[in-house]
């Protein structure tokens, strides 16, 4: 299908949840300090969430900077907003070789934007919570007018404080070594600052009206005070590039980004598989914006954006070097969207493979006969949306394989009838923990977490929605593909659309925020929801992130929503670029510390650290395997043969995989099929194969078809 719009970010539907989903006006997490229109959906999984959660004192990362409400701490005893930037030589490395983790220090208050009026009664509030930006405000007390507003925008080149009749107080806990006299850059005054750690910073003061640009003076080695009643902006940036860098900052001083929007376009399938997406920033000021791009952006810049690159680069915490551009928007090109990927095994080089030998089909049918005789309800009617979804997807994989690959429509028909029955339990909201539409934050959550925040991995607090709901969306896509009439029965389609909108809505509507999970700046999703975190948002399973994008693609194809399918294709192409850059570390990786890349996967990637671990155990098969499952068509897109071979040699070769217990062994061998499909086939096709070696979200039926589709088989 050709996308129906020049911008694929078109509305899915404007409705809420179907009537069987009850609404709840109470949520365990208060909307702390959030002002403005509270009738609109609020982003729960974005970079700035620490500022409205719990103590409000944990950092937020805009990259390459992080900001933290000082709250009276540090050498400066400030109540302003501290600014930190961490160079790579400042990180702490864990034990081992490769090191178990790396972490960036927090709480280094290199520069602070404050006001003399702020003190112990200072309040932090937020408004305009959008996908790429939000505004933070500091006022003298709760309910008072904002003295300083901080527009927080991903990639912002300056940290900007907008002063409203306050006395500016520029502080540091690292101590000022020197502060220059003001140098005029047009109507903006520039102060060159060197801290006692030797780092160079720039302070730009742009007044409104008659406010004094030159009236800033250092009172001690932690404070610079400005004129009382100041109206205007103060901007701070770190300058690693000497005089040439300073001249670039000069070109942008006085302008700042306030919000961002995304647009995207894909070529009609059959002509070209390229896609582009553009981040456009709304700005204040007449000069061009200075913004930072991450490595995966720079790799895919179009020619106009590439021409806007500067020689300023700053290290990010977990995403390599950020490159500054002088531009009001940046456009990235993904030249090879996976448009031909469907339900069958697929590779980027050979596309879809369905033709298999008679012996292979016989083995698949034999496995399917056994697996479709299992009690489907016992594997899907569980007290967890995550594990229920995995169970449903398992049988969807089996039934698709039986009908389209093994050519056994009668066996598929009986399995499909059973799958519809089990899926209908969730559509009717009659599962063990029904879903609730949360009117506070605006989303669909499990009822389980109203008593236990950790229930179902924190689903009620908006953790992991793309992981959980992606399995349901994929299952629905298979059912709708095999029986299109099912889509128009009852509220089947509306229920699935509700899940898609919850974690991947294409526009900010009245009932769901835009793209709750997927971060279009970082190129992957964040799993952590409404939990305060000293290291920011995180994600543990890059592969389930990919599977959620794949589910969106296939659901869009089945319901003939060309723009949704195109968004899924674009997300997959971006993930194929971002995951090897940040999560799946081949030996050639240059973004993560060299002492760490030998782990092959990051484990849990936070905004501020990477920990080669999981939340459920430290076995290598857990840490590596959670970035493999579920093995599905997009696995070959994001997991290169080079990476898979290196990972296997590091952890699982020479019989080590055969010592792994349970379903994790099956995951490892299904992953091996990417580089050695015959060895993987031989493992799964062995006489008397033990189904206990298959994960609860996988099947022997699919694994046999998967291995055969990648080149193995009888």
Please write out the topology.
Blueprint: E1 23-24, E2 60-61, E3 66-69, E4 81-84, E5 92-93, E6 101-103, E7 111-115, E8 123-127, E9 133-139, E10 146-153, E11 159-166, E12 168-171, E13 176-179, E14 183-185, E15 188-195, E16 200-207, E17 217-220, E18 223-225, E19 230-238, H1 242-252, E20 256-266, E21 275-284, E22 290-293, H2 295-299, H3 303-306, E23 309-315, E24 321-326, E25 329-334, E26 346-347, E27 351-352, H4 358-371, H5 376-380, H6 385-405, H7 409-427, E28 435-438, E29 443-446, H8 465-482, H9 492-504, E30 518-519, E31 524-525, E32 538-539, H10 542-558, H11 562-582, E33 604-606, E34 609-611, H12 620-625, H13 635-638, H14 641-651, H15 663-672, H16 677-684, H17 700-709
Parallel strand pairs: 1-28
Antiparallel strand pairs: 2-3, 3-4, 4-7, 5-6, 6-34, 7-12, 8-9, 9-10, 10-11, 11-19, 12-18, 13-15, 14-15, 15-16, 16-19, 17-18, 20-21, 21-25, 22-24, 23-24, 26-27, 28-29, 30-31, 32-33, 33-34
Helix pairs in contact: 4-6, 4-17, 6-7, 6-8, 6-17, 7-8, 8-9, 8-10, 10-11, 15-16, 16-17
Protein name: Glycoside hydrolase family 81 protein
Keywords: Hydrolase
Outline the structure in words.
The chain has 714 residues and is α+β, with helices and mostly antiparallel strands. It has 17 helices and 34 strands. Strands 8, 9, 10, 11, 13, 14, 15, 16 and 19 form a nine-stranded antiparallel β-sheet that branches. It has a seven-stranded antiparallel β-sheet with strand order 2-3-4-7-12-18-17, with no helix packed on it. Strand 14 (183-185) and strand 15 form a beta hairpin. Helix 6 packs across helix 17. It comes from Cenococcum geophilum 1.58. This is Glycoside hydrolase family 81 protein. Keywords: Hydrolase.
């Amino acid at each position: 299908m050709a996308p129906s719009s020049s911008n694929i970010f078109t509305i899915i539907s404007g409705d809420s949840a179907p009537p069987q989903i009850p609404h709840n006006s109470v949520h365990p997490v208060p909307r702390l300090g959030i002002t403005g229109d509270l009738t609109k959906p609020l982003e729960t999984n974005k970079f700035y969430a620490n500022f409205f959660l719990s103590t409000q004192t944990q950092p937020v990362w805009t990259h390459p900077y992080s900001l933290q409400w000082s709250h009276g701490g540090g050498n400066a005893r400030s109540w302003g907003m501290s600014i930190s930037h961490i160079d790579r030589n400042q990180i702490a490395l864990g034990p081992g070789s490769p090191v178990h983790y790396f972490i960036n220090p927090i709480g280094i208050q290199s520069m602070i934007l404050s006001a003399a009026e702020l003190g112990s009664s200072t309040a932090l509030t937020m408004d305009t919570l959008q996908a790429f930006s939000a505004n933070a405000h500091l006022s003298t007390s709760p309910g008072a007018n904002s003295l300083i507003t901080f527009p927080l925008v991903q990639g912002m080149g300056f940290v900007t404080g907008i002063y409203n009749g306050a006395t500016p107080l520029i502080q540091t806990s690292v101590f000022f070594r020197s502060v220059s006299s003001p140098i005029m850059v047009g109507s903006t005054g520039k102060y060159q600052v060197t801290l006692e750690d030797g780092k160079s910073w720039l302070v730009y003061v742009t007044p409104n009206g008659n406010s004094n640009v030159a009236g800033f003076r250092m009172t001690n080695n932690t404070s610079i005070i400005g004129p009382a009643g100041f109206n205007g902006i103060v901007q701070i940036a770190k300058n690693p590039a000497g005089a040439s860098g300073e001249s670039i900052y000069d070109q942008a001083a006085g302008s700042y980004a306030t919000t961002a929007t995304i647009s995207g376009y894909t070529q009609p399938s059959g002509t070209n598989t390229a896609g582009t997406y553009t981040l456009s920033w709304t700005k204040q000021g007449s000069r061009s914006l200075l913004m930072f791009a991450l490595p995966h952006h720079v790799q895919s810049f179009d020619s106009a954006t590439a021409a806007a690159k500067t020689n300023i680069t700053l290290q990010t915490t977990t995403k390599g070097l950020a490159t500054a551009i002088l531009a009001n928007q940046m456009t990235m090109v993904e030249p090879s969207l996976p448009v031909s990927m469907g339900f069958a095994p697929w590779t980027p080089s050979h596309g879809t493979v369905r033709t298999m030998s008679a012996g292979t089909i016989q083995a698949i049918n034999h496995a399917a006969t056994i697996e479709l005789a299992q009690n489907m309800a016992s594997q899907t009617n569980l007290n967890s949306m995550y594990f229920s979804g995995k169970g449903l997807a398992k049988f969807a994989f089996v039934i698709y394989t039986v009908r389209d690959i093994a050519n056994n429509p009668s066996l598929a028909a009986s399995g499909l009838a059973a799958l519809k029955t089990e899926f209908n339990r969730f559509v009717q909201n009659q599962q063990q923990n029904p879903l609730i539409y949360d009117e506070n934050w605006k989303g669909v959550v499990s009822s389980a977490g109203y008593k236990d925040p950790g229930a179902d991995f924190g689903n009620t607090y908006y953790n992991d929605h793309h992981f959980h709901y992606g399995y349901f969306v994929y299952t629905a896509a298979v059912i709708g593909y095999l029986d299109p009439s099912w889509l128009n029965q009852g509220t089947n389609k509306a229920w699935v659309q509700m899940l898609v909108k919850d974690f991947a809505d294409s526009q900010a509507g009245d009932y769901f925020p835009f793209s709750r999970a997927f971060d279009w700046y970082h190129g992957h999703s964040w799993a952590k929801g409404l939990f305060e975190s000293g290291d920011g948002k995180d994600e543990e399973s890059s592969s389930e992130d990919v599977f959620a994008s794949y589910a969106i693609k296939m659901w869009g194809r089945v319901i003939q929503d060309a723009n949704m399918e195109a968004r899924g294709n674009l997300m997959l192409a971006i993930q194929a670029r971002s995951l090897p850059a940040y999560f799946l570390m081949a030996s050639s990786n240059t973004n993560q510390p060299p002492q760490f890349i030998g782990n092959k996967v990051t484990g849990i990637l936070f905004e501020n650290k990477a920990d080669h671990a999981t939340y459920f155990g430290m076995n290598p098969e857990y840490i590596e395997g959670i970035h493999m499952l579920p093995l599905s068509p997009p696995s070959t897109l994001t997991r290169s043969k080079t990476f898979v071979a290196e990972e296997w040699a590091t952890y699982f070769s020479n019989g080590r995989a055969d010592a792994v217990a349970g379903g994790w062994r099956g995951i490892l061998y299904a992953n091996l099929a990417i580089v050695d499909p015959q060895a993987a086939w031989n493992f799964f096709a062995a006489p008397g194969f033990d189904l206990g070696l298959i994960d609860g979200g996988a099947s022997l039926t699919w694994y046999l078809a998967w291995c055969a589709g990648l080149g193995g088989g009888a």
